Amino acid sequence: MIESQIALNSNLSNYFVHIKEASSADLNFEDLFESYKVVVLDGFKISNLDFFKSLPKTSFEEWIPPVFQKELNVKINESHPLWKFYPDRDVILAFQQESVLLVEQVESLIREKMRSYEFSSISCSWRMNAMDKGYLHFDIPEESYENHQVRYFVNLSARPRIIEFGPTLEEFLSLHRDHPRLKEWLQLSHHEFHNRLKYELIKPSGYEDSILPRHYLSLAPGSIWVSNAFSVLHGLVFGEKTVCLEGKIKPQSLNKPEEASFESKMKRLRELYG
Ligand SMILES: [Fe+2]
After folding, report:
1. For residue 149, how far is its CA from the centre of ligand 1 (angstroms)?
2. How many domains does the chain contain in total?
3. Engineering a disulfide at 162: which of 31, 106, 138, 238 sits with its beta carbon 3.0 to 4.6 angstroms away?
4. CA distance 34 to 177
């Protein structure tokens, strides 16, 4: 088995937890997740991983929006969302079947490792285009933010997936604590606040490309990383195929909602910088 590897940068906090044996039955992710760790999980056996590894690679492209599992089950023709990746009826037919099996396996992992959480939904999106350039970003909470988010990304390629990680939300705001508009932005909704970070601080200056320190993760084939991606800068360096299962967790079902919910994290940041 190939292990994932993490290259740590001492100028950032180390928020990784690397679990090398996924089958430890007593292993629970809830405390790790509630302390905003990034969990890297090796050794989870996916019975049909070879099917996805063997799919033809696409060329390096611009970012293409993810294809949701619920969009897959439509008539197979040139307008099928997978046609641009696999213009072959038999491949798409097999994908439809194998995807259901893969989702079942990863979803049962999520429910086993986060047993006491109440999920309002677990959705699945496929990202099958090879990419060699991403940019550091925080995921952006929905406009109607209600639920805590956890994302499980599985590397479906035969080659490692290289992901860069930057400062946490706390570390990033600390760098910008003197920004004249930070107070104002902190009063906005989570969605709008994250948009301001993206459009005013991260994207316009190329700041993320030149200055911020990074950790690098080489995620082994079949390995998984788990996080709340609203609160840590992350971006793709190289990757071919991945699937994301996103759980929406009812915040009151967290073990420590008062401390761990994203809402309370934002409240603390408002007290600190607002
Ligand atoms: Fe992201």
Report:
1. 12
2. 1
3. 238
4. 25
Range of the domain at 32: 27-273
Ligand 1 center–CA 77 separation, angstroms:
30
Would residue 152 count as lying in a domain? Answer: yes
Residue owning tokens 């999106």: 125
pLDDT in tens, 160-176: 999 999 999 999 999 99
| Residues within 5 Å of ion ligand 1, judged at the Cβ atom | 139, 229
CA 32 to ligand 1 centroid distance, Å: 19
Q: What is the pTM of this model?
A: 0.94
- With cut-offs at 50, 70 and 90, classify the pLDDT of residue 205: low
Residue 82 lies in a domain: yes
From the number of C-beta atoms within 10 Å of its C-beta (0-12, 13-18, 19+), residue 135 rates as middle
Residue 211's pLDDT band (boundaries 50, 70, 90)?
A: confident
What CA–CA distance (Å, rounded) separates 192 from 140?
9
Ordered alpha helix ranges (H), the chain: 30-34, 49-54, 69-72, 89-113, 169-175, 182-186, 190-196, 207-210, 257-260, 262-273
CATH of the domain at 183: 2.60.120
